[in-house]
Design goal:
Blueprint lengths: L4 H4 L5 E12 L4 H5 L12 H8 L3 H4 L2 E3 L5 E12 L9 E2 L2 E2 L7 H4 L12 H14 L16 E2 L2 E2 L2 H16 L1 H8 L7 H11 L1 E5 L1 H9 L5 H25 L5 H23 L6
Antiparallel strand pairs: 1-3, 1-8, 2-3, 4-5, 6-7
């Protein structure tokens, strides 16, 4: 989900800030193109064709561009990702029923092909998703018969709801670009060089969301009431999660309990600081 969507769903998820690195070889970096290993969905494309399409992705257009790596363009894209103790599936699911379907995040609204897939790659990504879904141990419960609603026709999108949701999601991601750039320089989060080093080693990771509350409020992306309510909701949820873990007494949950306790303290500090700010005057 997007960073600002996390505020709307703060009663459901404990969000984190998730970092994603996209590295693209410059046109004269032949070794870089040769090093690209395409996902099975995109086999048959040339690396140059694939890179051209990826440059149109949300991860690039809404990401913060990095400098200093010869032969490469690099972008860091920030989203929100739920944190939770180990469990199977999404915390919003009750069995296979989504309990927040009417207000589900854009990642879910743009199933079967997420909004961050460039439109030029939609056909390949769609066929890959359907093929994997049919072959999965727990197959997707979607209608892929001849009677199913038409999603794509001749490479063109036909699903009006998906088209509308995809546009909203992309516009929201682009609108959050400045917030993402501010977070990359935040004194409350790991330094940028550390972030880059970790991304190159691990491909992606996530950190505490409390800094997003501070900067989104400072930038006017969320008002004081929304920020305070979000912090209060997170505090209540974290207290419940920690209490549940203490009752279970599982050794494999100790690290997460320590992380959640630190996050709980951070949200208490942020809520206290917000509450102490003077009321805005007209």
């Amino acid at each position: 989900m997007s960073l600002l969507e996390a505020f709307r769903l703060g009663d459901v998820f404990i969000p984190s800030i998730a970092y994603k690195l996209t590295r693209i070889p410059k046109d004269d970096n032949e070794a870089g193109f040769d090093s690209i290993k395409l996902h099975p969905d995109f086999e048959g494309m040339s690396p140059r064709e694939f890179v051209k399409d990826i440059r149109e992705s949300v991860a690039v257009k809404a990401g913060a561009m990095l400098t200093g790596e010869p032969g490469w363009d690099a972008y860091i894209f920030l989203t929100a990702r739920p944190w939770h103790y180990k469990r199977v599936g999404c915390s919003a699911l009750d069995g296979k029923r989504c309990t927040i379907h009417d207000r589900r995040p854009m990642t879910c609204r743009t199933v079967p092909v997420r909004y961050d897939v460039p439109e030029s790659l939609l056909v390949r990504a769609f066929h890959g998703t359907v093929t994997r879904g049919k072959a999965a141990p727990d197959p997707y419960e979607c209608d892929t018969s001849e009677k199913a609603p038409v999603f794509l026709d001749g490479g063109a999108l036909k699903d009006a709801a998906y088209i509308a949701d995809r546009k909203v999601a992309i516009d929201a991601a682009l609108d959050e670009k400045q917030l993402g750039e501010r977070l990359l320089m935040s004194p409350y989060l790991p330094p940028l060089q550390e972030v880059v080093d970790r991304l190159r080693r691990a491909g992606g990771f996530s950190v505490s969301f409390h800094a997003a509350v501070i900067h989104a409020h400072d930038m006017g992306k969320v008002d004081k009431a929304t920020a305070v309510a979000f912090c209060q909701g997170q505090i209540a949820m974290l207290e419940r999660e920690i209490a549940g873990a203490l009752a279970r007494k599982r050794p494999d949950e100790r690290d997460w309990t320590g992380r959640f306790r630190s996050l709980l303290d951070a949200y208490r500090d942020v809520a206290k600081a917000l509450a102490a700010q003077p009321k805005a005057t007209a």
